[in-house]
Amino acid sequence: xxxxxxxxxxxxxxxxxxxxxxxxxxxxxxxxxxxxxxxxxxxxxxxxxxxxxxxxxxxxxxxxxxxxxxxxxxxxxxxxxxxxxxxxxxxxxxxxxxxxxxxxxxxxxxxxxxxxxxxxxxxxxxxxxxxxxxxxxxxxxxxxxxxxxxxxxxxxxxxxxxxxxxxxxxxxxxxxxxxxxxxxxxxxxxxxxxxxxxxxxxxxxxxxxxxxxxxxxxxxxxxxxxxxxxxxxxx
Length: 235
Description:
The chain is α/β, with parallel strands linked by helices. Helices cover 52% and strands 10% of the residues. The chain crosses the membrane at residues 45-66, 91-112.
């Protein structure tokens, strides 16, 4: 049985941190935790194609020649226009067979989830995490708050990456680097294996930023977004 992304006590602690933070601001904080942001199917295919294309050439450079077995045994010199042509044919068939084998083996190995993640470039992971975070921002209606003051904190466990997206009402008044301390606290907690503590610290720091520009209005501070923590399994 797979370990859940967050334990029930982790979820409860994060929800409590969100509720407390939102008493200090009209901003709305929303947390989403994903097991993985993409399946990265292109990674095994790219590696398999690259190894298949380069493998035979590297073997030749190393002085290793691969030929297919002589499947035309019994043919006489008269039946084969030139012995060199027959050798070239065997070499070509051997190279094709080798490429096919390299492609299949590399594809199988690179499709193993830990291997696939290790072989995926960090830039691609970052791009996919950012894309998924923006998808969740739209899907969870964070732009629907009255003053466009929604903040999404998105964590993708498999990639060990996090994103924070502030709606335009906040982004127009808060510099992007204002969130750096919150993100640092979040990632530090995740690295320690204490996700609830990391989230709680990040949420508190986000509330500090929001309270300075978007303080609560007595009697007019509705909870516009659910305080629930959304957990996304692999697609």
